[in-house]
Design a protein that fits this description.
Blueprint lengths: L8 H4 L18 E3 L9 E5 L1 H6 L10 H7 L11 E3 L2 E4 L2 E5 L5 E9 L2 E8 L14 E2 H17 L5 E14 L8 E12 L5 H9 L3 H15 L8 H25 L1 E2 L21 E2 L24 H20 L3 H26 L8 H12 L6 H8 L10 H4 L12 H18 L6 H8 L10 H12 L4 H9 L35
Antiparallel strand pairs: 1-3, 2-9, 4-5, 6-7, 7-10, 8-10, 9-10, 11-12
Bound molecules: adenosine monophosphate (AMP) and magnesium ion (MG).
The site of adenosine monophosphate has 18 residues, from loops.
Length: about 525
Amino acid sequence: MQLNINNTFTTELPSDPITENTRRQVFKATHSYVTPKVPTQPKLIHASKDMAEAIGLDENEIHSKAFLDLFSGSNVYPKTNPYAMAYAGHQFGNWAGQLGDGRAINLFEVSHNNKRWAIQLKGSGETPYSRQGDGYAVLRSSIREYLCSEAMYYLGVPTTRALSLMLSGDTVLRDMLYNGNADYEKGAIVSRLAPTFIRFGNFELFAARKDTENLKKLVDYTITYFYPELGAPSKETYINFFEAVANRTLDMIIHWQRVGFVHGVMNTDNMSILGLTIDYGPYGWLEDFNFGWTPNTTDRQNKRYRYGNQPNIGLWNLLQLANALYVLVDEAEPFETILNQYQTDFEIKSLDMMRSKLGLQIKDDTDAKLTLDLEACLLLTETDMTLFFRLLSNYKHGFAANGIKTVYDAFYTPEALKDEILDRWKVWFLSYDKRLKKEQLKDSERQELMRTVNPKYVLRNYMAQLAIDDANKGDYKLVDDLFQLLKNPYSEQPENEKWFAKRPDWARDKVGCSMLSCSS
Ligand code: AMP
Ligand code: MG
């Protein structure tokens, strides 16, 4: 197996001089060298042909012993030195100090077709940053990360990618709900890829320690390799860098809101400096439209990371990044301006996104009210977000009286559609219909466009759980079925119509479907 290794992170940035794999505080270094744990009996469950090709591998190589050895952590690629990255972070609003890659180990960077990919193994054992963890990952969360990162990519949401999903052959002890019921689960390893895995927290680590020299090195490195369009590092470039990160972060979150994705753990150590969705943990997909929903039971009390709060948390996290970068600029005002702009841009982009979901091409003053009224209607009774918008893409102009029929299948309790609730929907459809009169597109053209932003298939929480239940019994067919299904989330797939349906009742309050914890 031949890869075009092209390391920059380890060659340009300072490493931890200690090479023992012991948990410790690491200073003045961006990474520590550490070798992945050799798994007992690795087995390939699934691999992405597209990602194999993206790093210059042939599809056939996926099934080779060399692939199994490399991406299970059994063998280290010649002349490379795997490493864990040092970072810190704010978790659930509180400063958490040093964190770092506790269960991820970077193998190397590869260049192919003018693209750079850093490749990590998640679940390959302890590192100096493992703190009280064991460095392993369980099959259920590995399936969730593997399927969701690829699904997000095909939905058009910026994300890290996944190359392979393997069983380690080892068992891992986990207390899934943190309620004293620990059990052994199958261990697994995902290999995942991104141009870089640098997070807000990498900058926060140096800033908190007043290590300006290394902070500057890391910022300069990030700009040189990942924001080259900003030019040579300078005070002005640092401000432009922060602005670019703010824009990308906002764009990513607007995409989350569009498809109904709830990250679940938007700590600053889980915020990519490239604005990619990263660290798929207790994430979830909105089934009934609800701003207050979070899948993460660890966050049950405050619901800090609930659906409707994601844009605010993006801003809060950017403020922490601004605090970290501040010493390089020594002026607060440019950061404040950018943070204020984020809020203005959020309003504009969020409305544009809702316009696209409604198939509105023209900007009209009444659009903000139309979307607010719709959101209020969606909250009247349990309404499935994905189904609602996809079905609305079938709406025919001039048939407001039939509007509710078009989207009928999206309601979890259709019997509630009466009296005042029904009246409010009727009023909304009338105003939507009136608004469509101002548009120039034909029904069919508008519907076509709406179907490119309102997905038909998303990785509903129960779908991932069904794949996990089968995989725990050694049956991986559903992992592949879902992987293939979610490669074309906007297409009609008549053979897969069963996945275009409301969450089944059994999944409503089932662990893994609507309740997830950080334990993975
Ligand atoms: P997360 O909530 O997954 O973003 O993880 C937060 C921090 O805990 C990161 O530093 C992780 O590397 C670390 N961590 C999470 N799970 C484990 C584990 N099983 N073993 C070691 N470190 C872990
Ligand atoms: Mg994390």
